[in-house]
TrEMBL record:
This is MDIS1-interacting receptor like kinase 2. Keywords: Cell membrane, Glycoprotein, Kinase, Leucine-rich repeat, Membrane, Receptor, Repeat, Transferase, Transmembrane, Transmembrane helix. The gene is MIK2_15. It comes from the Eukaryota. Coiled coil: none annotated. It is a single-pass type I membrane protein. Belongs to the RLP family.
Amino acid sequence: MDLSYNNLYGELSPEWGQCHSLTSLKISNNNLSGVLPAQLGEAIQLHQLDLSSNHLLGKIPRELGKLTSMFHLALSDNHLSGNIPWEVRNLVNLEHLSLASNNLSGSIPKQLGKLSKVFFLNLSKNEFGDSIPDEIGNIHSLQSLDLSQNMLNGKYHHSLQNYNA
């Protein structure tokens, strides 16, 4: 289902989680507000979720880690806050992860290194601190990595020079 580039407003309904045969949900570039409902984690056939460029806030629900068929997750350009939940490591089929331009903070989770199929990873324009986890160097499929405009510090990892990202 694609409802992108409209002028839809209001909160995202928890009832989307009851759509057990839904494989794609794109409602980007609208005016949705409120929090991401944890019930989205019940839409177990979801392969693609794009809710970027809205006004969503709150934390990324850890229940999204149940969506093990997910290959595209885009939540960029919202007002999401808190940490990336460690359950993201369960998204073993994920190829595209964009969480840019939010208010996410804490450390970049080392569990991202478990996502062996990711080729696009954008965590730019957030408030991530600490160092880049060594485990990012384990993602050999990575083609595009953007960690710019955060508050990262620490030692530069030579494993990052192996990427053409």
